[in-house]
Amino acid sequence: MNLNLQGRKAIVCAASKGLGRACAFALAEEGVELVINARNAEALEQTAAAIRTATGVRVVAVPADITTEQGRTKVLAACPEPDILVTNAGGPPAGDFRDWDEQAWHDALDANMLTPIFLIKAVVDGMMARGFGRIVNITSGAVKAPIAVLGLSNGARSGLTGFVAGLARETVARNVTINGLLPGPFDTDRLHSVVAAEAERLEITPNEARERRMQANPAKRFGRPDEFGAACAFLCSEQAGFITGQNLLLDGGQYPGTF
């Protein structure tokens, strides 16, 4: 399917590795010019180089902390009129809510709720004026099925989801859609660290912990980042213009509910 994205411009956050990188690659394969962002300049430039080599599209790497006003200003200066915005930021640490002080909550809200909102605020009016815009927020499967030890993430990402639910109904008439992508267990560095911690807690090998997790999923495997990237690219396509305010769960069927 031709997604009709050739020549569009996109900002993809936290794109040096993992799911953000997969989204950037998928968009580049459709001919989208990219501004990609992450904090690690070396890893980000390696990703930019790999995308340029593989696709030939223009890629600008902007190393910055997107959760700060200075970082957002730097990224937006490199692409002031994006057609596509993919928001993404690392999740806050797991733990017991009794141990989280006020600062921990502020940090979680800044990274996983307020940063996407501020980025949306900066670009959405221009998208509506131009008659095209696709905003995809990478959140978490925990929005659909909260995980107790991820309370910081549950709260912040659910707040973003609630905000978007209202705004997305106001922008779609101008061909600007806003949707969420909710990853379950994908084969990324973050999942590897979770599996390693679980192995240590259970006193088993990392391979054993990995196998246990895969067998607990109906798909009997972890998701591939390229599968996630393909879903993101479709939500950014012209054909997805009638999809807005939705939250697409990609978890191999792990969530047991109907809705």
Neighbour order of strands in the largest sheet: 3-2-1-4-5-6-7
Largest sheet: 7 strands, parallel
Average pLDDT, rounded to a whole number, is 95
The SSE order reads: EHEHEHEHEHEHHHE
Distance between the termini: 28 Å
Proportion of helical residues: 40-55%
Rg result: 18 Å
Choose one word for the global shape.
globular
The number of helical runs is 8
Please provide the count of β strands.
7
What is the topology?
Blueprint lengths: L8 E4 L5 H12 L3 E6 L2 H15 L3 E5 L5 H10 L5 E4 L14 H29 L2 E6 L12 H21 L4 E8 L5 H14 L3 H11 L8 H11 L11 E4 L9
Parallel strand pairs: 1-2, 1-4, 2-3, 4-5, 5-6, 6-7
How would you sum up this structure, described in words?
It is a single chain. With 259 residues, the chain is of the alpha/beta class. Helices cover 47% and strands 14% of the residues. The chain has eight helices and seven strands, in the order E-H-E-H-E-H-E-H-E-H-E-H-H-H-E. The protein has helices at residues 18-29, 41-55, 69-78, 102-130, 151-171, 189-202, 206-216, 225-235; strands spanning 9-12, 33-38, 59-63, 84-87, 133-138, 176-183, 247-250. The protein has a seven-stranded parallel sheet with strand order 3-2-1-4-5-6-7, with helices on both faces. Helix 1 (18-29) runs parallel beside helix 2. The radius of gyration is 18 Å and the shape is globular. It starts with 8 loop residues before the first strand and ends in a 9-residue tail after the last strand. 41% of the residues are buried. The model has no long low-confidence stretch (mean pLDDT 95).
